[in-house]
Design a protein that fits this description.
Helices cover 42% and strands 11% of the residues. The protein has helices at 17-31, 40-46, 52-63, 73-93, 103-112, 125-136, 161-170, 184-192, 242-248, 251-255; strands spanning 4-7, 116-121, 146-149, 177-181, 197-200, 215-217, 229-231. The chain binds xylulose-1,5-bisphosphate and magnesium ion.
Length: 256
């Protein structure tokens, strides 16, 4: 029986990366006097590393960009990332980033059926509440029993830690849940915690390895706005509903 839906945020609830996080990183770089520019293609490569601070670190290591000599590099990166978060929160508040098709509909259906909701994400906690507030209103933050986010666990996705953390907080077993993800790293993370996972892919992730996902689709869909099924069982409806998620989360299905 399906007891909870665990939502990833970036790329799954909303297309936050290209026009949100990427833009905010670049604004923070400009403010810091850096000539770094993460264009759309480069950002797609950098998304292989989850976590904003970890992504900046990876960029420094792999691309050798110019930057000042600093006494404490981890602290300098954390400061740069803090400035990025401020820009990102402003972009969210300006209403730049809508939720993906079907997200509000599915949240409402789950709530009406008593299916519990949680969030399991790599991003900074304020970014989650900022997105919810800007798209669904402040009260929507309370719809989620657990918001597992950011540095609350030492190892970010693809490690399973953030999903294990959410399961422990919900006091549920993996087979009582389903995870909604958009990326290969997200799929690996959910599977590492034993949770069946459905993927709604996007332009940055469509070529990712989704091995082990029970279903891969274009988006959650809406009545009159059908989905494209890439892998997995066809839903009865032309969009993704709780009945379909319950079917996917059965242990027999999850094991196939
Ligand atoms: C999301 C991320 C995050 C965001 C940036 O991955 O990788 O790093 O891009 O967020 P997922 P922060 O959707 O798999 O959780 O800058 O706040 O880290
Ligand atoms: Mg994601």
């Amino acid at each position: 029986m399906l007891k909870a839906i665990l939502f990833d945020v970036d790329g799954t609830m909303a297309e936050t990366e290209r026009d949100g996080h990427r833009v905010a990183f670049n604004l923070a770089f400009r403010d810091a006097g850096l000539d770094w520019d993460w264009d759309v293609a480069l950002y797609g490569e950098l998304l292989a590393v989850t976590g904003g601070k970890e992504r900046i670190r990876h960029f420094i290591d792999q691309h050798n960009p110019a930057y000042p000599t600093v006494a404490d590099e981890a602290r300098w990166i954390a400061g740069l990332h803090k400035a990025k978060t401020a820009h990102y929160l402003r972009l969210l508040a300006e209403g730049e980033i809508p939720l993906r098709p079907g997200v509000i509909r599915l949240l409402n259906e789950a709530r009406s059926k008593g299916i519990r909701l949680a969030i399991s994400t790599t991003t900074t906690p304020e970014n989650v509440t900022g997105l919810l507030e800007a798209t669904l209103g402040k009260e929507s933050i309370d719809w989620f029993e657990v918001i597992a986010a950011g540095d609350v666990v030492p190892a970010k996705k693809p490690a399973g830690d953030i999903y294990v953390y959410a399961l422990e907080a919900l006091k549920l077993e993996p087979h009582e849940c389903i995870a909604l993800e958009d990326s290969g790293n997200g799929v690996k993370s959910a599977l590492a915690a034993g949770i069946p996972v459905l993927v709604t892919d996007n332009a940055y992730t469509h070529a990712d390895d989704f091995s082990g996902a029970v279903s891969v689709i274009s988006d959650l869909g809406e009545p009159g706005q059908p989905i494209t099924l890439r892998h997995g069982p066809a839903p009865t409806a032309s969009f993704i509903d709780c009945a379909y998620l319950a079917e996917l989360s059965t242990p027999m299905r999850a094991a196939t």
